[in-house]
Amino acid sequence: MIPYNKPFIIGKELEYIRQAVESGKISGDGKFSKLCQSLLEKRFGYGKVLLTSSCTDALEMCGILLNISEDDEVIMPSFTFVSTANAFILRGAKIVFADIRPDTLNIDESKIEALITPKTKALVIVHYAGVSCNMEKISAITEKHSIALVEDAALAIDSYYKGKALGSFGQLSTLSFHETKNIIAGEGGALIINDPQYFERAEIIREKGTNRAKLFRGEINKYEWVDIGSSYLPSEIIAAFLYAQLENMDTVIKKRISLWNLYFQKLKPLQELSVITLPILSEGSTMNGQLFYLLCNNEKDRNNLLDFLNQQKIKAVFHYLPLHLSPFYINKHDGRSLPVTESTSGRLIRLPLFYEMKDDEQNYIISKIFDFFNINH
Ligand SMILES: *Cc1c(COP(=O)(O)O)cnc(C)c1O
């Protein structure tokens, strides 16, 4: 079986884990956490970065930092991972789902303003497949209506909009280092804080509601319970692994982009024959090779292609199921249909794409897709 994803070691991951253990401290916020955080801050121009145990954790921290409560509404796409919504549901918010654009599968910026009410507290956007949302229009909307902007940049590390790193637009943004993402730590994530008003409270929430970070810096001589919070920080073993990955980010992403480009070039003839649709880059956006998807013409074709590829020992997979139709939310949703989300999610397939993928594996996958459509190549 060619897997959909395969974790990899690219540099000093194991050596750094050993160093962390031998240093006598493997709980959170040691040397490797700080190295990861400052690398991300410097490279991408982020305000401040705090490592978390997952992107889910970082999103939950956003819900707390924005003081989201039962009276609030949060707008986000329905075509996203459950964590984007759960983080705000946990604070009691009502989620108002927006439809996506048919080209990039990102939130449709022209449909946001109609959803804003006096109760709207935040807009959460997702850069699908690492391709940017229309940040000019979106930033203008959140500024005009004074609502917070959160970027779920789980898929978007090292991708840019008009030269500015994704994750640097939101007051708060999040990254994921889950094993399926570009840069991995098994489970891991980061909260990016671009608005300084949240710096101090973010540290406290992440350390169980205490001001322990201030104690570590020698600013106080005992630490106390000062706010709500949880344990959102990863151990130094995770941070050590992650730091080695971050040091090799350029190599990983370059490889993934070249795999992505090869899929795109080789599958183009199928798009010209109108049997599939390939991804599109939005204006001003770069791409980071995070995932390669294609859209079939209908759900039946998609399911048949998935079955066929799985029979050929290729682990192709679908992606997000619309959250507004999920068993948990369908009765809480306001009943609006989201036609693009509903039609797209059932037609999408992601192809295997991982750092150690071999040319012959990729060529085999491409040839099987041509076989499925009975087209010679
Ligand atoms: C992967 C993903 C998450 C969750 O990331 P974890 O690190 O696994 O918590 C959240 N949002 C989006 C858009 C994702 O793709």
UniProtKB/TrEMBL annotation:
Pfam families found in the cross-reference section: DegT_DnrJ_EryC1
Active site (record annotation): K181 (proton acceptor)
CDD domains: AHBA_syn
Domain of life: Bacteria
InterPro entries attached to this UniProt entry: DegT/StrS_aminotransferase, PyrdxlP-dep_Trfase, PyrdxlP-dep_Trfase_major, WecE-like
Protein name stated in the entry: TDP-4-oxo-6-deoxy-D-glucose aminotransferase
Modified residues (N6-(pyridoxal phosphate)lysine): K181
GO biological process: polysaccharide biosynthetic process
NCBIfam families reported in the protein's UniProt record: ECA_wecE, PRK11706.1
Family as reported in the entry's similarity comment: Belongs to the DegT/DnrJ/EryC1 family.
Keywords: Aminotransferase, Pyridoxal phosphate, Transferase
